[in-house]
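Limitations

Structures in this collection are predictions, not experimental determinations, and the ligand pose is part of the prediction. Treat each record accordingly. The example that follows, with zinc ion as the small molecule, is included so readers can see exactly what is and is not provided: the inputs are given verbatim, and the output is the predicted complex.
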Amino acid sequence: MTDRGRFLKTPRHRSALVLAAITSSIVASACSATAGSAATPAPAISARPHATSIGATPRASARRPAAARQKTPAAGTPRAVAEPLAGKIVGVDPGHNGRNYTDPAYINHLIWNGREWETCNTTGTETDSGYTEARFNFRVALFLRADLRRDGARVVMTRHNDHGVGPCVNRRAQIINRAHPDVAIDIHADGGPASGRGFAVLEPVSDGPNDKVIRASERFGLDVRSAILAGTSMPESSYDGVHGIEPRDNLAGLNLTRVPEVLIECGNMRNATDARLLTSARFQRRIASALEAAIIEFLRNR
Ligand code: ZN
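Predicted complex:
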């Protein structure tokens, strides 16, 4: 989510509150621990050691959308069509991690995000029924990874399961930068006001290290917005950014990136309509397919 300056608020995370109190000038990650306002605290994320781990790894072949099926090569089809991402490297950062809540001291330690101090990570948000953002992010990332590999890309992930802690957001940026991908995407879902709907694309703001990729990231962001509008039923955010686009200068992943990169808040987990979509495997596949289409479009024009 995109609210700023909020931290872990559940009783289990009192130490985080203390830390937040003494470091009020620092910023939170893209999605904070809870979605409620100070006056209406969100439900605590319960300790469910297995609830946040996902089931079977999604398979790219399962119920592939029509657009993707059309890319399946016929005999004699040139490789460029059969594998439109052959030779490309794509960074995929599924936000948060399924057990971040178990180690608040680690998750709340401060890192330098290129512009200011920020917490290492947060737990992320969740739906009112307790479906965690970390789980959503990871499932979409797996669907996307399968699509990318099918299309010939090499995929670099910043985490490999949904039952770990971290890594910190600056470490995620380092993982991506060191792999020298052609493009990278950070996958999140927001915890906005219950009445608000829709997705938002967060884009980097020039800060020195990322200067060379600002324009490319903006172009990629437009490709992402177009692909999501074309490929899913999720509307542009009604409360975040302008027409689904928001420049952000306080996120490590965007501040530190050396490659074209945007962060997608795929919807608002605190909105009942969005939550129904975000928790469905069908929609998760569609979002992944839309991101895949955006990546192909972006790299096709480079
Ligand atoms: Zn998030």
